[in-house]
Amino acid sequence: MPTAFDPDLARRLLDAALEVAQRAWVPYSNFPVGAAVLTNHGEVISGCNVENAAYGEAICAERNAVTTMVAVGQREAAADAAPSASGAVPAPVPQVRAVAVVGLSAAPCWPCGACRQVLREFHCQHVIVEDAAGEPVILPFEQILPHSFGPEALGEAAGSEATDFEAAGEEK
Predict the structure, then answer these.
(1) What is the pLDDT of residue 124?
(2) Which residues does the annotated region (Disordered) include (predicted)?
(3) Separation CA 5–CA 97 (nearest Å)
(4) Alpha-carbon span 70 to 108, nearest angstrom
(5) Tens of pLDDT along 35-58?
(6) Distance of alpha carbon 34 from alpha carbon 21, whole angstroms
(7) How much is the pLDDT for 153?
(8) How far is CA 50 from the centre of its chain?
């Protein structure tokens, strides 16, 4: 289970999410959302939702922030990264220490199911939203996506090894 999260840092992440939410492109839903991802390197990477007339082609703020994190090269080798039985060494995986999500039209604004799954892929530890009074609500990631599916469920067939979730005692 992740350790406690600093409330001052949570507020700074929420402020970053609020700032980027104001740049969201939402001509169809009028529901702007911003997200700020805190990497294990301490970098804050923000993203907002971007809609499209072909609704399925829209991207949520959280996934926008995560894809940006990957694009800028945030990678961290697992401390216990060992070669698999086939000899392959796992590629370093970008790590999300926390994500803060702000919806300008609703509070709290929790990540959708697709975003939760993407955040899980990158080992998200904490989710931070604002309550109706604007105060931070900080939850361990496992509380918003219990019994999750991850790369380790694909096993050796996909070239995956155990992840930090498995090492931390989460069952497959």
Answers:
(1) 96
(2) 152-172
(3) 10
(4) 26
(5) 999 998 899 999 999 999 998 899
(6) 4
(7) 85
(8) 17
- pTM comes to 0.81
The pLDDT, as a whole number, for residue 51 is 97
Question: What is the rounded CA–CA span in Å between residue 26 and residue 33?
Answer: 9
Given a contact cutoff of 8 angstroms between Cβ atoms, the answer to whether 33 and 104 are in contact is yes
In terms of CATH, what superfamily is 7-76+96-147? Cytidine Deaminase, domain 2 (3.40.140.10)
Q: Is 152 a catalytic residue?
A: no
Angle (CA) 72-108-170 rounded to 5° is: 65
Read off the pLDDT band of 157 (50, 70, 90).
Answer: low
In DSSP terms, 129 is beta-bridged to: 101, 137
Instruction: Give the domain ranges of the chain.
Output: 7-76+96-147
Predicted pLDDT of residue 160: 44
151 or 27, higher pLDDT:
27
Q: What is the SS3 assignment for 26?
A: coil
Residue 144 DSSP code: H
The catalytic position among 62, 130, 142, 161 is 62
